[in-house]
Design a protein that fits this description.
It is a single chain. It is built from 5 helices and 8 strands; from the N terminus they run H-H-H-H-E-E-E-E-E-H-E-E-E. Strands 1, 2, 3, 4, 5, 6, 7 and 8 form an 8-stranded antiparallel sheet that branches. The longest helix is centred in the first third of the chain and has 24 residues.
């Protein structure tokens, strides 16, 4: 009886190995090139299908009702592996009211997430310097390195953030693993599209 069970186990292992071998042989031998990365990056869909500029435009009416002097301080969106995307979170500031509002923009919908006093003056985004929108920045990062980084094991969270930095208005792209440790970070000028040197 024991020998029969042993033979049955060996047979099952042999069948499993055969199935794995056949599936591996059916995979095309040619390496996958750039176009598939474009497809995959579009599946990631940062901002839930909307660019940061479109989200800011959609928030204009709400901003005017909140305060006449509302200024944009930052914009960010996240992607949770493999492809769960959020809308755009905007940090807004009113100098006259000395308050900060955090709003979530999903399509045309604007939702106030939090409002709080501003303990100090904020540095608003200079809109004239905002030339590079999120779609162009993300696609460039994806083609140059992001596609490889995001498909590595343990990639969990991707953050795309626009705000003022020591070298001006910049996009920050950050990838964290499932433990919350940094896997990748790149800062790109929102004006020129060039990668910023580390300060």
């Amino acid at each position: 009886m024991r020998n029969k069970l042993l033979l049955l186990g060996i047979g099952l292992i042999a069948v499993a190995l055969l199935v794995i071998a056949v599936s591996l042989l059916s995979i095309p031998a040619t390496p996958v090139a750039g176009p598939s990365r474009v497809t995959q990056s579009s599946k990631l869909n940062p901002g839930a299908g909307s660019t940061a500029r479109a989200a800011y435009t959609n928030a204009q009416t709400w901003m005017q009702t909140w305060a006449d002097d509302t200024q944009l301080v930052a914009a960010s969106t996240t992607i949770e592996y493999p492809d769960v995307t959020s809308g755009w979170t905007l940090q807004l500031y009113s100098p006259s009211r000395r308050r900060i509002a955090i709003v979530l923009i999903t399509g045309d919908a604007v939702e106030l997430l939090q409002e709080q006093p501003a303990l100090y003056a904020q540095t608003p985004i200079t809109l004239a310097d905002w030339i590079q929108d999120s779609d162009a920045i993300f696609e460039r990062w994806w083609q140059e390195r992001g596609g490889n980084i995001w498909t590595q094991p343990n990639s969990k969270t991707l953050l795309l953030h626009l705000g003022m930095s020591e070298v001006g208005l910049a996009w920050q792209i950050t990838v964290l693993d499932d433990q919350g440790d940094l896997k990748d970070h790149q800062a790109i000028s929102a004006t020129t599209g060039n990668v910023n040197a580390s300060p």
